[in-house]
Specification:
globular; 14 helices; two-stranded antiparallel sheet; alpha/beta; 327 residues
Length: 327
């Protein structure tokens, strides 16, 4: 099936919402990367989107992604200065691309964020209602899966668009995909290798560790302020990764790996802080359950060393420790 821009505009997506026309020249003082972006700013957004579709369609992974993405009714927007290369907004079912990030970047970003849209339409329950460890396992698997599909696209684009491959050649997830595919000839195994390597990439790992702590702090503050007792209370379905992490319609992720030391670890300082936060939430919100699942995870030191699991502290110790610090 051919995915040309007119087909996409007329039927495959509910709507394509244009942002402002991006025609301003980049200042001369900007870097070469931004100067490359200025080439795209001379084009209309419709032409940009046409170029994007042609690039994505040039690979088998891109065509698979477009076929699935076309079924979820997601709108596509261009917005200069958007978060990094782009993002998917579940509450609006909208995919936002930053054209200023450069053509080499936003074609792969589109594949990554389109996977998030596809994932959301498979499982769109509120992950904040789940036990911390379950929600964390899901969020990590979602990112690793989207990255594996992105790396498959980048690898396949190396012949038709070698600059895309060169731009991302530093990614260990891409090397894991390429090395496994070239050694075995098995795309499913290559996807699995890329998926698993996501968990050991310290740059991504540290970024998500920081954002996770910030998110839990905000969530606990919200729950306490609003008396919401529903947080951290549900157990994640055991087959969720089988439903989300798919390649050609079948699961490729190893569920045992998701419980491994590498995939199921958390900074030891975060573990202590999150344990105190969930205990304080349970104490201060009537009807709230105490979620101690963070202690089911392996503590990890700053140098990446993963330690054995430690005994869970007593609930009373966690709460009294938290309260004593607030006095």
């Amino acid at each position: 099936m051919s995915f040309q821009a007119e087909e996409f505009f007329s039927g495959l997506s509910k709507r394509y919402a244009c942002g402002r026309e991006a025609r301003m020249e980049s200042p001369r003082s900007l870097t070469a990367a931004f100067m490359r972006s200025s080439d795209f700013k001379r084009k209309s957004e419709r032409t940009l989107f046409n170029d994007l579709l042609k690039t994505v369609e040039s690979t088998a992974e891109g065509r698979r992604t477009l076929r699935e993405f076309s079924k979820v009714g997601c709108s596509v927007h261009f917005e200069d200065g958007a978060n990094a290369g782009g993002f998917y907004l579940p509450e609006k079912n909208a995919l936002v691309i930053n054209p200023s990030s450069g053509f080499k970047d936003f074609s792969s970003v589109f594949v990554h964020e389109a996977r998030h849209a596809i994932q959301f339409h498979i499982f769109n329950d509120d992950s904040d209602l789940y036990r911390f460890s379950d929600g964390e396992k899901l969020k990590r698997a979602i990112e690793a899966d989207a990255t594996a599909h992105e790396c498959a696209f980048i690898y396949q684009a190396r012949k038709t668009n070698p600059e895309i491959y060169e731009e991302h050649s530093y990614l260990p997830m891409l090397h894991a995909y390429a090395d496994t595919l070239e050694r075995t000839g098995n795309e499913r195994k290559a996807m699995q290798a890329s998926f698993q390597s996501w968990y050991s990439y310290d740059y991504y790992r540290d970024y998500y560790d920081k954002s996770t702590l910030d998110r839990v702090e905000a969530l606990v503050n919200y729950g306490i302020s609003n008396g919401d007792a529903s947080l951290f209370s549900k157990t994640m379905p055991s087959d969720i990764t089988d439903r989300i992490c798919l390649f050609e319609g079948r699961s490729y992720a190893d569920k045992k790996f998701l419980m491994s030391r590498e995939a199921y670890s958390i900074p030891e300082d975060n573990q202590k802080k999150i344990g105190k936060l969930t205990a304080t939430y349970a104490r201060q919100v009537q009807g709230a359950l105490y979620d101690h699942s963070v202690y089911d995870m392996y503590p990890r030191r700053l140098n990446g060393e993963i330690l054995d699991k430690k005994p869970r502290p007593r609930f009373s110790d966690l709460v009294s420790s938290k309260l004593s610090k607030s006095r």
